Structure formats: C-alpha cells, structure tokens
Amino acid sequence: MDGLVVEDLIKRYGSFTAVDGLSFAVPRGSVCGFLGPNGAGKTTTLRILFGLSRPTSGRAEGHGRISGILDRDGFHPARSVWNELSLAAARAGRRDADIDAALAAANLSHAADKRVGECSHGTRRRLSLAAALIAAPDVLLLDEPASGLDPHALRALRERLQQHASEGGTVLLSSHVLEDVAATCDRVVVVNRGRRVAEGDLQAMLAQRIRLRSPEPEKLLGAMNGFEVTRDGADTLIVAGADPDAVGRAVRDSGAVLHEMSTQGALEALYVGLTEAS
Ligand SMILES: Nc1ncnc2c1ncn2[C@@H]1O[C@H](COP(=O)(O)OP(=O)(O)OP(=O)(O)O)[C@@H](O)[C@H]1O
Questions:
Q1: Residue ranges of the ABC transporter domain (predicted)?
Q2: Within the chain, how many helices (H) and strands (E) appear?
Q3: Long-range CB contacts for residues 157-166, cutoff 8 Å, separation at least 24
Q4: CB of 167 closer than 8 Å to CB of 161
Q5: Which residue's alpha carbon is nearest to atom 8 within ligand 1?
Q6: Less Cβ crowding at N or C end of the chain, within 10 Å?
Q7: 217: Cβ below 6 Å to ligand 1?
Q8: pLDDT tens digit at each of 278 positions of the chain
C-alpha cells in the first residue's frame, strides 16, 4: 500500500513551470530518496505534500499524519530546545509526549536548556527531526535532512529513518549527498526540470551498474562477451544492465585477479547519466 502518491502534479509560478506533470508513489515501509539537480522541483513538491502550497493541477498526498523538515525550521531563537520540542508536541496534539525521552533519543539531552539561537546548525537540524518525530507521523517528509550533520549524527539519522520505515512508516527525503542516499534509502525517485526521469527499487537500479576493479582489466574484458562494458580509468570496468550472478561467473571464468566488485559509486554514475541526458 502506498504511503504517499504524487499524480500528474503541475506547479506553475506565473509562466514558469517548476513541476511539470510529476507522478510517483512511495510504498509504506519505505525510505525513498528524492534526487535531482538544483531547481528540479523537489522542495516545491515537498511543500505541496505538506499542504503549504497548492498545486496548479494534479495531486500530491500522504496518507495519515504528515510531519517533517523543510529548509526553514521556524524555531524562535530565544526559546530553549526543550521548549521548542514541547511546543512541537503540543501542536501535534501530543501533550502526553515524553520530551526528555525524545531529547535523549535525539542525543540532545545536553542541549535541553540551550536557546535555539545559540545552537549549531547540526544541533538545530537534530531538533527539527526530533520535532517531526514527536508528532508520531505516518509520513516523514525531509528536505535535505543530512545538511550540517556530523558522521555520528548522520548514522543516527539513517538508523532512525530505517526504524520508522520498519514500523510501517513512509519516508521521502531530498538530498544531494548520493553516498548517504545509497546507504539510507531502499528506493529513489530522480527528477529533472520538474519531471520524473527514474523511479524504483535502489538495489535493483544499482545492480544494473557493477564496478569491477582489476590489475588485469584486459583479461577481464576478454571474458565479458555479451555484456555492456565501459572502461572507467586504467583498472576499472563498469558493467551495465547485467545480473550480478552472471557477472560474478564471468569474472571467475576470466581467471583475472579482482580487487573490487561493487555497486559503489554506481548511484552517482546513474544520477549523472539520467540528469545529463534529459
Ligand atoms: N515562490 C516561487 N516563485 C517563483 N519561482 C519559484 C518559487 N519557488 C520555487 N521557484 C522556482 O521553481 C524551481 C524549482 O525550485 P525547487 O526549490 O522546488 O527546486 P529544488 O529541486 O528543491 O532545488 P534545490 O536542490 O536547489 O533545493 C526553481 O527554478 C525555483 O527558482
């Protein structure tokens, strides 16, 4: 069952079309990356899903309670971290929420009494996520949630989002950090100039591009008959559109020494190909 649906969505600002007939869906239990170049229409789509902006035509709807992070967090700089979280709980109708426990879960207990205006960018970002989660949402919409986070906070964010999905929630997050998307998401939607250029299961999409690194690339290349292979530097081959088992067997049969067989970096290659081509 879908947690959110975007269908034939169009958003125009005057004569400029920011979102141009966009359609995609995110199933429940999924963390979906929302990728695209600057100005592709991601924030516009997220704002419509939040109900902050009206579509020109089409629809964008999440099922159940929606919360999340937009570019501006709207916190008052003079309020304390504890107070902002408590206000977020009250706004979401969750007056019974345990604020101290939510702060601890967000690793923010030490900052509870700090004024928001005195917090670092990363701390504010973590507070934004805690404020979104305290609403106990079904659908989490996150615009660049990883921005400003250190590696520990990034890992905690990833684990929290995956936990939300494993409990049946739905997550849509925009990001330009593709490595992070690859580690966090199970699906992606790629948009360019307001249109969808790709959508699907991330592993299935990445399995379509396997990177092989070998000190004997010629030997390897000789065994790759029938595969679509491109060279990427002196010792690296990229095999496109092939089943990993079949590639693995061809590598074994070649007898070449292999230093790496992975889909690492494949998302970037896929993204660049998709957004340049359209
Ligand atoms: N209120 C507005 N009035 C006019 N144009 C707007 C408005 N909001 C957004 N746009 C334009 O719509 C296009 C899509 O913007 P949007 O912010 O959705 O892109 P994005 O994919 O989120 O980009 P980024 O990755 O840079 O955040 C851009 O060209 C932007 O300038």
A1: 4-218
A2: 10, 13
A3: 157/129, 157/184, 158/183, 158/184, 160/105, 160/129, 160/133, 161/31, 162/31, 164/31, 164/133, 164/140, 165/29, 165/30, 165/31, 166/29
A4: no
A5: 44
A6: N
A7: no
A8: 899 999 999 999 999 999 999 999 999 999 999 999 999 999 999 999 999 999 999 999 999 999 999 878 889 999 999 999 999 999 999 888 999 999 999 999 999 999 999 999 889 999 999 999 999 999 999 999 988 889 998 999 999 999 999 999 999 999 998 888 999 999 999 999 999 999 999 988 887 788 899 999 999 999 998 898 988 889 999 898 788 889 999 999 999 999 999 876 778 878 888 887 55
For residue 229 the two structure tokens come to 């292979």
Confidence check on the interface: ipTM exceeds 0.90, yes or no? yes
- Structural contact between residues 194 and 182, judged by C-beta atoms closer than 8 angstroms: no
**3-class DSSP assignment, residue 107:** coil
44 CA closest ligand 1 atom index:
18
Question: Alpha-carbon distance 26 to 221, whole Å?
Answer: 39
Local structure of residue 114 (DSSP, 8 states): S
Q: Whose CA is nearest to atom 11 of ligand 1?
A: 18
The two tokens of residue 93 are: 């109708």
Q: 134 and 102 in contact (C-beta within 8 Å)?
A: yes
Q: Which residues pair with 17 in a beta bridge?
A: 12
Q: Determine whether the shortest distance from the Cβ of 47 to ligand 1 is under 6 A.
A: no
Instruction: For residue 191, give the ligand 1 atom closest to its CA.
Output: 21
